[in-house]
Amino acid sequence: MRFTTRRRALVLQKQVNDSLRFNPFVFSRLFFLWVLIGVAGGILAGGYWIVLEHLLEWLEGVQGLLVVPLMMGAGLLAGLIIHKLGDPGEMDLIVNNIRFKGGQLDPHNNPSMILSSLLCIASGGSAGPEAPLVQVVGSTGTWLAQKFRLRGEDLRSLTIAGMAAAFTALFGAPLGGSLFALEILHHRHVVEYYQALIPAFVASCSSYVIFVLITHTGLGPTWVFPLYTPSSINDFFFAILYALAGTAAGWLFIFTVRQCRRGFRKVRLPIYWQLAVGGLLIGIVAYLVPLSRYFGHDQLNELLHDSFSVQFLLVLLVAKVLAIAFTVTSGWRGGFIIPLFFVGAVVGLLINSLFPDQNLPLIMISCMAAINACVTRTPISTTILLATLTGFHSIVPIMFASLTGFFLAPKTPLINAQLGVEEHEE
After folding, report:
1. Where in the cell is it found (predicted)?
2. 334 lies in the same domain as 276
């Protein structure tokens, strides 16, 4: 019996050694799965983006008072889709599934997520496509893992790789998208997901190439910022100072979202009526302040190219915070990362209007970094994403601003699933 067991062990060892001789490289078959989910993510994100652009071109012609019934109707229709096809959940559910359910995301509700989010975003909701695509591509990673009978960390890593592929396709930053997919899961648990870093990076690179080929988007920055010229080491301290304003805006946003969330919970309407009410509120805000409509991808360039009074910037700041809060809490589908960058840019312009002759690009980038790090608790990936999106060549001031927003964030995060087990117990 012992001889048989030993013989089997020797045979197994020989097979392993033979396979290593046959493949002298670091990569294994899992590498091709990471590439595959990246390609799938690029195709899904590219197709989604093209459809979204066409819908935006069609619906952005609706202006003035007609915006209110349009958005109310879009909310009602999106709610009916969710009611009939199933509720795909929000970012809290995604984070919880990655952390506590072995990294499995359910792909069955993807049709509901795709259709409802397209309606919500295209009609003018203040939420972007990153969150819906994270769910769709991440769950596709789970599906692939199950088809190839992966278990444990391999399954979780492929799911996270799908999430990273979605982030990267939309942000155009493979490294930033990879880190964001890990960091959003909770800063205290990043080490747990370190094994997923390389899969996420490989999938992100693949996704980025495919997305660019499909959409023909440029490889340069998304937002054309004024040229930043570092003056002295004092810029780092100014970045911290400006970040305080961005962090304050983050606190304001979190407070507003929590109040709106309590309000919708008290009402307890069916999902379709809740989204219709949300559409009514967002539509009223968009009618009163048209620049607050949509998720800010194109509107941020308008901020950079036009001049605005202090009074208008204050109104726009309040309107955008309310629009995002109504969008997020009423059940409208979409993510708030790009909208938060928009809010940060408004805060930066407001500071520059109140205290002119300052370093405008430094002010804006600091406020944008601080508010996103404060709300999402992702200081590392926020730094890399912003540097890529804005073409900001000096990354150190962004680091200082991101860390400021992160360490001055509320103890209880906006994304409840980011709470650690010990914090839940408290």
Report:
1. Membrane
2. yes
Where b means 16+ CB within 10 Å and e means fewer, 290-323 reads: bbbbbbbbebbeebbeeebeeebbebbbbbbbbb
Q: Under a CB-based contact definition with an 8 Å cutoff, are residues 348 and 313 in contact?
A: no
Q: How confident is the model at residue 13 (pLDDT cuts 50, 70, 90)?
A: low
User: Residue 338: inside a domain, yes or no?
Assistant: yes
* 346 plus 381 within the same structural domain: yes
Check whether residue 84 and residue 42 sit in a common domain: yes
**Is the residue at 425 inside a domain?**
no
What is the value of pTM for the model shown? 0.87
Nearest 10 degrees: CA dihedral of 341, 342, 345, 350? -140
Instruction: At 65, list the tokens.
Output: 């008072």
Q: Give the pLDDT band of residue 422 (cuts 50, 70, 90).
A: very low
CATH number for 127: 1.10.3080.10
Query: Of 259, 267, 274, which Cα lies nearest the Cα of 72?
Result: 274
Within this chain, do residues 393 and 252 fall inside the same structural domain, yes or no?
yes
Per-residue b or e along 264-274, where b marks 16 or more CB atoms closer than 10 Å to that residue's CB: beeeeeebbeb
